[in-house]
Amino acid sequence: MRIHLVNPSDTAFGVAVITPRWLYVLAAATPRDLGDPLLVDETLEPCRPESIAAGDVVGIGIHSGNALRGYAVGRLARERGATVVFGGIHATLYPDEAPALGGAHAVVTGDGETAWPEVLREIRAGTLKARYDGGKVRDASFLAARWDLLPRDKYMWASVQTVRGCPKHCSFCSVWRTDGQEARVRRPDAVVREIVELRRRGFRFIALADDNFYPVALADLAAARRRADPQRLEQLTAMREERFELMRRMAELPSDMVFFTQITMEAAEDEAFLDAMRRAHIVGALVGVESVTAEGLKSVYKGFNLAGDELTERLRTFRRHGVHVLGSFIFGLPTDAADTFEATARLADQADLTFAQFVMLTPFPGTVDFERWERSFEGKPPEIDGIPLTRHWLIPHGRRPRIFSPHPTLGAEEIRERTQGVWDEFYAIRRVWARSRCVPTLKGRLAFVLISKLYRQMYANTGIATDSARVHRATRWARIIAAPCQRLFAGRPMPELEVPQGYSRELPLTRQTS
Ligand code: SF4
To answer: Which atom of ligand 1 is nearest to the CA of 290?
Structure first.
């Protein structure tokens, strides 16, 4: 009985940007006496059916974007006589789909770390149930990944998680519902040990795969003080101190290490936090800007972001403190007008963003937006090839619309074209070359250009384009430049590297962090 873990994807680039962490975490959760699982990341190469034999177990993790491919892999594995188990965010939201469409024998909802070994135990005992609930594992149960199974030459960035959950409630995002609004913060010691293991193996670029690296804003502390809630205040203060403790320990890691994370814009008001990030080698962060207008932000429940000139200033604050920003924007909000696209492109330029992504509003399952949108059809959604639009992830990619709700003033094709136009403008070679000044050497600048182009090909051309020739061209081009880009990220292994032990110098700890 061989265990396979599959990360499904329709598009394979041969080399991927970020390691799908869940594969390596579930590998760690697999009992050792079952042998090393076979990890299949289809963003590298498609799954080989002949590798699956009768009696094997195939675990497939899906989000809504890759669910359709995941179901195809599941059916194929079942036909070959394997026991098929689905998990992931989409399986949590729609647990009945995988048995009906993906050949699943069982579905795990919630976090997988503790449920997966139980599933395997029960498969061996012949007592497999149809449904397991992994719930939300507490911080102490977060597992370190099996990095000994990670190929050295396939990924640019490894990934480590430091916190799960986000206290916000943006209407287009499902994280706060699936991972919870109470941040579950991992112990600094566990995080640092995992990072050291990766650096020993030659990974010096690491993405901190967190929902929100800044789980306690200064405004949250002020609100707890205002409410005279000492217990909450103590809890938030301890969590904040623990973030500083983590960053202080990370600051003692080798100076060639580079970290990237996701963070809310509020972090820019907390200059001590930004400085600690920089000292901890966290030199880049994805910041969800979403909209450049106050009305747009209100429409997605993101009123805590700023708009206009204040927004530009706040984004620049990151850069002033040495943290580069990948700004993320959404187009197609009901409040968007034709001039929003140009205003966004201008702001991305003025705010000194190092990278940017421009996505089109999509009602993702599990979000407030999705529920509102689904309700708007009053039980009678339009269909494409017999599939209701409200199950859009089941519509084959070529037939799937790019815009889902009629916009009050803009046509669907106009939104798509203007979005593509903003990508083209932001990643025009002269603009990329100008931005590459953020790295000091000519070699570094050339690498910056290559990586910017790769990012654009992987995410913009394949995600937005409706023209299949353009998609194929972009995929082919990305495959060609991905391998040399990966080599730029590889570091010399440091097998002797010690785990920095450290003690808190910046802030006293009010909670044990063993
Ligand atoms: S978009 Fe970001 S800030 Fe908003 S709920 Fe999701 S993770 Fe939190």
So the answer is: 1
Which residue owns the Cα nearest ligand 1 atom 7?
Answer: 211
How many Å lie between the centroid of ligand 1 and the Cα of residue 289? 11
Q: Give residue-wise pLDDT tens across range 276-311.
A: 999 999 999 999 999 998 888 888 877 777 777 889
Ligand 1, pocket residues at CB < 6 Å: 166, 168-170, 173, 175-176, 211-212, 264, 288
Dist. CA 180 → ligand 1 center (Å): 11
Tell which residue, 24, 20, 44, 127, has the closest CA to residue 83: 127
CB atoms within 10 A of CB 271: 12
> Does residue 143 contact residue 111 with C-beta atoms inside 8 Å?
no
Ligand 1 atom closest to 166 (CA): 8
Kindly state the tokens that stand for 438. 């953020």
Burial degree of 35 (CB within 10 A; 0-12, 13-18, 19+): exposed
C-alpha span between 256 and 178 (Å, rounded): 35
Which residue CA neighbors atom 6 of ligand 1 most closely? 173
pLDDT, one tens digit per residue, over 63-73 is 999 999 999 99
Q: Which residues contact 14 (CB under 8 A, 6 or more apart)?
A: 44, 45, 479, 482, 483
